[in-house]
Each structure stands twice: as C-alpha cells, then as structure tokens.
Amino acid sequence: MSKNIKLIHPRNQITEIIDRIYKRGMTTTSGGNISIIDEQGDIWVTPSAIDKGSLRPSDIICVKKDGSIIGKHKPSSEFPFHKAIYEARPDIKSVIHAHPPALVSFSIVRKIPNTNIISQAKHICGPIGYAKYRLPGSEDLGEVIADEFNKGYKAVIMENHGVVLGGSDLTDAFERFEALEFCASTILYGSQIGTPNYLTDEQINEFEAQATGVLPEMETTSYPAEEVEKRLEICKIVQRSCQQGLMISSYGTVSMRWKDNDFLITPTGVNRWDLEIDDIVQIKDGKREAGKKPSRASWIHQEIYNRNPNVNSIIMTQSPYLMAFGVTNSYLNVRTIPESWIFLQDINAVKYGNHFRKNCSSEIVDNCDTALIIENDSVIITGDKLLQTFDYLEVAEFSAKSIVLGNSLGELVPINDEQVEDLRKKFLS
Length: 429
Fold this sequence. Notes:
By secondary structure, this protein is an alpha+beta fold. Helices cover 37% and strands 16% of the residues. It contains 14 helices and 16 strands. The strands form 2 sheets. An 8-stranded mixed sheet has the order 4-3-2-1-5-8-7-6, sandwiched between helices. Strands 12-11-10-9-13-16-15-14 form an 8-stranded mixed sheet, sandwiched between helices. One of its GO terms (cellular component) is cytosol. Pfam families: Aldolase_II (PF00596). Keywords: Lyase, Metal-binding.
C-alpha cells in the first residue's frame, strides 16, 4: 500500500488490509470487519457474509451519510458499532474489528494484555479499554464500545468476542491491531514456559527517548547497480517477514553490508509492510543518506559490521515464539533439535537496555552470535547472505515454537554434550 493512503480509494485500502489479516490467520472466512469514514462522512465497510479470503474492491459497501447504501451486498452486521465509534470520536477515521486467537483468549478470560511486555507497544497501542458483553450486531454493543472510545481509548477488548481498534487512518489502525495481537501472543506463549516479565514505564520512556537520525548527513549519495540490488533484496525480505509473522508493521530492522563497513539499513517510522526501495538508508563513512532517518539500531549494526568481518547481513526483529523466551528470561535450548543447533549453536540473551546504551554494547557486538535475544525487546540474527540470515530466523522461530508447544507434553530432553560434539565435528569443522 502506498504511504500516501489518501490517494488510494477506501475500497482498495480495506481489501488490502483484510487480505493481510486473513492470510496471517488473524480472522476467519466469515469473521471480522473493517471500515473507513471519508471526508464527506460516508462510511466504507466490509460486507456481511462474504469470504474474507477473496474479498474484492467491488465487494466493499458504502453507507452514505444520509443512511442510504451503495453496493451489491449488505454491510457488515457489526456496522452499528463502527458508526457509533465515528460519532463518538471524530479523530478516528478507520476501525478494525477481528477475532485474532491471542486477543480472543484474553477476551474469554476477561483480561487485558499488558503492553509493557515489549518496548514500543505501549506507545503504539496506548491504554486498552474493555467493553462488557452485548449481543453481537446490536445497538447495545455499539453503545458500550462507543463509551470506551469516549474515554480516549483507541483499542478495546470486547468481552467474550474479540477486539476493536481505531486509527487516524487504516494503516494506523492496523499497526495498533498487529502490535496488540503480538503482545497477547507473546504473553500467552511465554506463560507456557515461565512467568512473563514486564518493563517499567521508566524503561519504556528511556527507549522512546533514543535519538534518531543522529548521524551527520552525506553531502552527495551515489547509487551503483550493486547497491540498488541490495536495496531490493532488503525490501523483499522485510515483506516476506511480515507475511510470515516474523516482523510487524511497527518494528523490525534489516541491514546488509554494502562495501567495506558501509551498509544499507531500513528506516525508522516507516510501516514495514509498505517499505519501498527508496526508503532504504545508505550509511557510508559514518554518515547517513540525506533526508532519511535510519533505524534507531543503526549504531548496533555498524558496530557488528566493524567488529565481525564475516557478518554481511543482520535482521533485528520480534517474532512471538522467540520473544516468549525473551520476556520470561527462559533459556532457549536449541540442543533439543540437532538441525537447529547446527545452524544456530547456543542462543544467548542480554538484559534489556544494553541495546541502546553505546557504552554497554560489547556483549551484543563482540564475537556476534548467529542468534541473540535482547530481553523484552528483540532477537538479532546475523549471517553472510541475507537469505541465509532469514533462514536462520525461520529456524530459530520454528525451534522456539516446537519447544513452547512441546513443554506441555513433558520434560524436554536435549541431546547430550557428546552428541553435540559429534555434530560439531561433522558439520562445523
């Protein structure tokens, strides 16, 4: 989706976002609805009882300000609460309602996920409201949800139902939706292997206060063919990561060494789903491409490249099963799966905060591990070719998932030191 979504028709915006939600398994064929209110006060909304897996722009309904309906289907049965939200909050221009599994889990035990589980979620999601159960599709449901939005919330857990989120536009609402479901998933998975730990408001404020774009700007920038090719590769890997749930809209940094210790890196403040080739930031001789803000983690990437000549690509992201270990201080023992150990060896963890205090960087950047978890923040994966690094990320997340799921079956039994040594001799010598 173009970053200037005002130039995209609401029909197309809605179908693209519902397609992302459906393919990520965050709603069902019949579940969930999305709407946008335009400058004329007309509301564009998904139809009732139409397959969310094959929705087309022509399926989207327009409910005019005067109540008349344009379109070949009926509007969503939940339209009343969409309308109620817009009436309660003129600042909200888009609404997403869905039944993503983790957030539904919270709704049926009548709890609200604590977004202090990771660094940026509190800022993105804001405080979370809670709407008592009312009959789906009823005016009563619209009233209780509107009451929560009237309190200033932009995200509301619906008791025994799901979640509803608003935004200044559809991209804003989707970022909030994706981040909140990620928080819920991470808490759920973490609870299967330990006790989730939460960041303090002070720690989060310190994270948010990190300087961005502090590198001096280049006077001129050149774009040789090899550099452009690497930009495209980064964009493809970021898109693939988003599609597979290994990265979310609001967080994820990818970089590639370009020449010597110069590198290309993703920007800050750009939705990861919508990343384009000209968003990528070139870092050369300690300077940044003019007019662009590189990731706040740029200095980590720079130091990893400076001190590890065999590392040529880095992915720094949040994926739910890996972060289950990162939020519980639990050890991710990949010796349970021989193939995973061959790729990753042992995965270490560092305390939260060391990733943005430059004077405390040595445990992150010296002798950089293939995979390293930063508690309550992210996982760093390093490698040679970017596709190889992405493969390591997939292997690490799949391994973490297998261990989380296997934990409910009984005691995990890793391979022993002798077996590890056999692997080392055969595959790493």
